[in-house]
């Protein structure tokens, strides 16, 4: 497998930027108590893990990203309202509304911007792609190959397929796939 890729830094970067946005907005609209801000960030992190909020991949559609964010924000709202209620904190409803509205808009714009940038980057530069091979030859694998070849914006580069069937265009038999993976630094096998 290839080394020196930057994809592993994307999710931590998302976390950091999201948390900075939450820190800024919570300090501005909800509370200036450091312990409260700490709990707000803590709740966001715990919810994001439980709800798999950051489990977004290059093939994830934008509507799914918005759906994940909407679910995360709604549950986050309920948790924070409960937190402030049990602490008897008096926060104006207009401040809470402003916080969640701006949080929703900002995170959506940030995510959509990043989504579009990555797709454009892959198309323009031809980089930030994963080299893939496919095991087998049937209608399902043919559909998968068409997807890889017809949707380059998702960042997959199909190098071919392996099968023990006697078909035209195969890279080799299944027994030769491991050597090919190592020699060609394949990222994913389907």
Task: List its salient traits.
about 190 residues; mainly alpha; 2 domains; single chain; 3 strands; 6 helices
Q: What layout of secondary structure does this protein have?
A:
Blueprint: H1 10-30, H2 34-50, H3 62-86, H4 93-125, E1 130-135, H5 139-150, E2 156-162, H6 177-183, E3 188-189
Parallel strand pairs: 1-2, 1-3
Morphology call: elongated
Structural Rg: 22 Å
**Multimer state:** single chain
* Biggest sheet statistics: 3 strands, parallel
Topology pattern, helix = H, strand = E: HHHHEHEHE
Tell me the β content: 5-15%
Helix content: 55-70%
Helix count from the secondary structure assignment: 6
Number of β-strand runs: 3
How far apart lie the N and C ends? 15 Å
- Mean pLDDT across the residues is 87
Spatial strand arrangement across the major sheet: 2-1-3
Spans of at least 5 consecutive residues whose pLDDT stays below 50 are none
Q: What class do helices, strands and sheet pairing give?
A: mainly alpha
Number of domains: 2
In short:
This protein is mostly helical and 190 residues long.
Explained architecture:
The protein has 190 residues and is mainly α. It has two domains: 119 residues, no CATH class; 60 residues. The protein has six helices and three strands. It has a three-stranded parallel beta sheet with strand order 2-1-3, covered by helices on one side. The longest helix has 33 residues. It is elongated, with a radius of gyration of 22 Å.
